[in-house]
Design brief:
Helices cover 79% and strands 0% of the residues. It contains twelve helices and no strands. It has helices at residues 8-38, 41-60, 69-93, 98-105, 107-116, 120-136, 146-172, 177-197, 205-229, 235-241, 244-256, 263-286. The longest helix is centred in the N-terminal third of the chain and has 31 residues, at 8-38. The protein is globular.
Length: 287
């Protein structure tokens, strides 16, 4: 059954929620970077998903009985895309600058947005959003390595898959039940990677504490918002709005860390926000 057509106010409401989730994700990423320095990317992804899954399972206590093979397939797909998206992104920022990694990673969801575009104007807004992202991350497009770029592009492919599997899972499960199960499955599946790369980190209170913060700020809050938003927003529009992620990161850097943006980066930020706003307005008018 096709999803009901959302009203314009609901589109704008969930778009604002997405931005809130992006800011939460950016703060969580700072703690994730600290944890990676003390452990490994595999450990951080395992803790991020596993702890988030355990918290949601304890709060929601979802029933496992009665789930069909198709339900488990969607859960497995969501768990795999979430875990691999984050793992490859962490591997990429270990090898290339963050701005470049985000730029290459966004190729995946923005290609999805172009494929799902309903009008030529939507394709144009997607292209503008990507252009703004390139401008924002231009200073990071140096010191690139083949492996780093490949990891970022792979993360982007899994990001597109994450959008699609979140959309499908959200329509099969009520509330955040599907997210709780997928995070738990993903955390358990990735545990061997963490155990192989840095087994002692799982006994380190500092790493475990950071993992808890990252689980809440980078998984429970933003993924929960994504799950709710994709029950309302078309996947193509949602994918276009992901271009706001580097813009929120830049704003957080200026406001909280006192970082300075170049004129090109400021221009890119304006282009990204304008493109996302026009794409949202296009969907609102259609609604």
């Amino acid at each position: 059954m096709p999803a009901p057509v959302p009203t314009a106010p609901r589109l704008w409401f969930f778009a604002v929620l997405l931005v809130i989730g992006m800011f939460s994700l950016e703060f969580g990423s700072a703690f994730a970077a600290m944890a990676i320095d003390s452990a490994s990317a595999g450990v951080v992804v395992t803790l991020r998903m596993g702890i988030a899954g355990l918290i949601l399972m304890a709060l929601l206590r979802p029933r496992l009985r009665g789930l069909s093979g198709s339900d488990w397939a969607w859960l497995g797909g969501l768990a795999a895309t979430m875990g691999l998206m984050n793992l490859f992104f962490y591997l990429s920022i270990d090898r290339i600058p963050l701005g470049a990694a985000v730029t290459f990673e966004l190729v995946g969801p923005l290609l999805l947005a172009a494929v799902r575009a309903r009008t030529p104007r939507s394709v144009l807004f997607t292209a503008l959003a990507f252009g703004g992202v390139v401008m924002l991350g231009w200073s990071g497009l140096r010191d690139l390595t083949v492996v780093g770029v490949a990891c970022a592009l792979t993360a982007g492919a899994f990001w597109a898959g994450y959008i699609l599997t979140t959309e499908g899972t959200g329509r099969r499960f009520t509330g955040q039940t599907g997210l709780a199960l997928a995070l738990t499955v993903g955390g358990l599946s990735l545990a061997p990677i963490g155990l192989v790369t840095a087994p002692s980190a799982f006994l380190d209170p500092w790493v475990l504490g950071l993992g808890l913060v990252v689980a809440v700020m980078s998984s429970i809050i933003p993924y929960g918002i994504d799950m709710a938003a994709l029950r309302v927003l078309p996947a193509g529009l949602f994918a276009t709005l992901t271009a706001l992620a580097p813009a929120t990161a830049a704003i957080a850097g200026v406001a909280i860390l006192g970082q300075h943006l170049s004129p090109l980066s400021w221009a890119g930020l304006v282009v990204v926000v304008a493109a996302a706003g026009m794409a949202l307005r296009e969907s609102a008018v259609a609604a």
